[in-house]
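Contributing new records

If you add data, match the layout below exactly. Sequence lines come first and carry their own label; structure lines follow with theirs. Keep one chain per record. Anything else will be rejected by the validation script.
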Amino acid sequence: MKGMTEDDYTPPWYLLNGHMDSMYLYLLRKVYVKFNRERIELPDGDFLDLDWREDHNSDHLLVLCHGLEGSSQSKYMLGMTRYALNNSWNVLNINFRSCSGEMNRLLPSYHHGQIDDLTFVLNKILDSKHYYHIHLMGFSLGGNVIIKYFGTFGKELDDRIKSAVAISVPSDLHSSSAALDEKRNFLYTMNFRRSIKKKFIAKDRKFPGVLDLSNYDQVKTWWEFDTTFTAKIFGFKDADEYYAQGSANNFIAGVRKPTLIINALNDPFLQKPSYPYHLAEMSSFVKLLTPKRGGHVGFALKGKDYTWAEKKGFDFLKTNN
């Protein structure tokens, strides 16, 4: 598929820049969905909480993956769940480890390149459910995970897994970590670090001495953070190894299912390498849309209870069914 810029998204007039595009729905959107929760045990002794809505007698299932420190309760997850349900598809929201409201049992939780849990969940669905059209959609970190999953397994993916959409994807982790280090993104970084710190404190109580939190607030850049903490927890040599093994760009060439990436050009979390035009142009399966506006997981539409990205993404999944 050919990478392209698409300009058919027009934001409401009162959203003036990428930060407003990003924060408007996060702060003001109202969407409520009640889930049926299933806890599954993982092979390593940990667990995942899955939030289901199986309202319809349908063989179509949409599997949603959230972003960094998100959950099934993130507004973009709720909004996409509602949109799919309104179109008669069933929906599964995966809460990554530590993100369901209850801390996971083991020291590791999740990261941008962790596909083992997604693989386990999808294999379980394929073995136990009667879905013949399974589609994936991920937001930010979740989109990166999905692209790596598709690219890792390539032709080996089950025929029942049809297509994927990845929205606001930091597909080059090195440059995206640098973007978050910029002063203009201080509030985002502060919120992420505050949330992660609470989890690390809980981990430290359960696994004393493994994490040195004495200098947590002195670790200034995301590269330093990922070298100091992420790499230690997950067994990488340093942040560079983590970024190389986790960045979706390094797996796009292996994708063998129709995949849509939507990255707004004014996304404050992304730099040039996360707009992989050349990789999309070289692929027969990956389409890249880069509207000028939309921010990070924004794409609000005036007077609508859904977003431009939700409609655009769902239309792509229906087309590749």
